[in-house]
Specification:
This protein is α/β, with parallel strands linked by helices. The protein has a single domain, classed as P-loop containing nucleotide triphosphate hydrolases (Rossmann fold). It has helices at residues 15-28, 45-50, 74-92, 105-110, 116-125; strands spanning 5-9, 33-38, 57-62, 99-103, 131-135, 149-152. A 6-stranded parallel sheet has the order 3-2-4-5-1-6, with helices on both faces.
């Protein structure tokens, strides 16, 4: 079966959730997924839940314990993004995984921690049967031609703007 390149982008909530939902669906059919998280180092509910699927779903996070703020410890974040990218390239060249999720890779691109050519190289390197999922804000139009499916999550209204903080079990 031919694998495609899917992209979940936009300023709305749900990009990572959609990708993890796909991983769980695939696990139901015995498919192996790896989730490589860029710019995410803090423990979240999905890490705890996905341990139940550890024979089929692997999750690796490459980020500090704090959210990335441009200009704030860029060197550390760049080093972690480089490690995540290197790991993505390794698994794209390997046939061990049916699905490869590069979570927040587009956000790393948006913040210029990797280049558009890096992402094109990643897409080109993937095994033809593997499904590659890219998530994050700011998908450049230049990448549209490399994606087989693009879903844009658009924020219409969000309680965050009224001062609500991220809630355990809902946002993380």
């Amino acid at each position: 079966m031919k694998g495609f390149v899917q992209c979940y982008t936009g300023n709305g909530k749900g990009k990572t959730t959609a990708a993890i939902g796909l991983a769980i669906r695939a696990a139901g059919w015995g498919k192996h997924t790896i989730i490589i998280q860029f710019l995410k180092g803090q423990k979240s509910g999905e890490h705890i839940a996905l341990k139940r699927f550890n024979d089929l779903i692997t999750i690796e996070s490459y980020g500090s314990k704090h959210f990335y703020i441009p200009g704030n410890d860029d060197t550390q974040h760049k080093t972690l993004v480089d490690k995540a990218y290197k790991r993505c390239m390794e698994v794209c060249g390997d046939s061990s995984y049916d699905i490869i999720i590069a979570d927040e890779i587009l956000t790393a691109l948006h913040y210029k921690l990797i280049t558009i050519n890096d992402i094109i190289a990643l897409i080109t390197a993937k095994q033809s049967e593997a499904e590659l999922i890219l998530t994050g804000r700011g998908l450049p139009k230049k990448l549209h031609a490399y994606c087989d499916l693009i879903t844009e999550m658009k924020e219409i209204k969000h309680y965050y703007h009224n001062g609500t903080k991220s809630r355990k079990g809902i946002e993380f």
